[in-house]
Amino acid sequence: METKAKLLLAEDDENLGIAKGFDTDLFGDGELAYTGFKKNEYNICVLDIMMPKKDGISLARDIRLINQNVPIIFLSAKNLKEDVLEGFRTGADDYITKPFSMEELIFRIEAILRRTTQEANSTGGEQNVFKLGRFTFDPRKQILTNEEKDEQVKLTTKESELLRLLCNNANKVLERNFALKTIWIDDNYFNARSMDVYITKLRKHLKEETSVEIINVHGKGYKLIV
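RE: above sequence
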């Protein structure tokens, strides 16, 4: 018998039930959701941004201090660029604005769960470790190591996925739409801005290595120069 994915739903609208197909824990405010997250293990978190006691952005930050990798989807009545970007900066995997159909939400949850499950089970012939100047990158462990300083950075899932695509296409153009559809499923405006945020994060991680650079290729995408 197939085990249902464990889902944390932080939403003060009790009419939003996603129990079908998932083992769902519903919390009506951010503080209850945070307490629940600390007590249980979840495959994915769906967080409403506007919640009593603790908003979704603050909750996501707290969750990321405990778990860097659990997928997070934000729900919001806002679609302002600043709110969307702030959501992605906290490590969101997706951002859905209200009103939305339940079918769309379930589709996005299932798409993210499929992707994360495939990555966890992947043992294919893909290169195990990439060498980037003084850095080595292990995509399976999601760890970037500065060999000279013997320092490690645990990358988020999105950072690791994006760096892996760049490494697999080193010194070639990584097309923007290909990266978006591979990692974010959808190449819409908000996901494109999210990818820009993660490119900036990767540049900061790699800034000490002058022989490695992620450049913008106008109208096409990005190129990892090694």
